Amino acid sequence: MNTQTRASFLFLRLAMGFLFLYAGLSKVTNPDWSAAGFLNGAKTLAPLFHWFALPSNIGWVNALNEWGLTLLGASLIFGICVRLSSKLGIVLMLLYYIPGLDGLYPNTHAFVVDEHIIYIAVLALFASFRVGRFWGFDGWWVERLGEPVAPAWYRILG
After folding, report:
1. What is the 3-state secondary structure (H, E, C) of 53-120?
2. What is the pLDDT of residues 122-132, one digit of tens each?
3. Within the chain, how many helices (H) and strands (E) appear?
4. Fewest CB within 10 angstroms: 2, 21, 28, 91, which?
5. What are the transmembrane regions (predicted)?
6. What confidence score (pLDDT) does residue 104 get?
7. Phi, psi of 138 (to 5 degrees)
8. Which among 102, 83, 101, 90 has a CA at the least distance from the CA of 148?
């Protein structure tokens, strides 16, 4: 991959990283924030999302949401375990996308594809092209220490 392509991936990785970091920190620093309203308004798979919103579950659901976004952002910014965090980010974005579906329509301002699908596509590119290796900690790891000895876990972590 040439330098211009790597630089483009770096720019996109940093932009997405700051987007997710801000989204996470805005939730972490707001003591009144809760996912309960969003989850209770689910149209698709409503029983599952209503279960997430139960008082006995909402604490860990909020924590996973807040810290998942924050850590995903930090991972992308620093290029640490980008492949793994991108895959987990795809799951998180699906959990944002699915509850809002009303047939084929995700919301009032989109037709099939909304911002969550775009995030999923970009995160899938990050995982596929191992963009953490382009000016990130993942690349430093491979340069200094070589490919990890345990290829099974490395295929996941990236």
Report:
1. CCCCCHHHHHHHHHHHHHHHHHHHHHCCCHHHHHHHHHHHHHHHHHHHCECCECECCEECECHHHHHH
2. 999 999 988 88
3. 8, 0
4. 2
5. 7-25, 117-135
6. 62
7. -60, -40
8. 83
CA-to-CA dists, residue 60 to 1, 66, 79, 122, 155, angstroms? 41, 10, 26, 27, 28
Residue 124 amino acid letter: A
Confidence check: pLDDT of 105 > 70: no
What's the whole-model pTM score? Answer: 0.87
Question: If you ran DSSP here, which 8-state letter would residue 8 be given?
Answer: H
Beta-bridged to residue 31, according to DSSP, are none
**Structural domain spans, the chain:** 3-157
Model pLDDT for residues 24-39, shown as the tens digit of each residue = 999 999 999 999 999 9
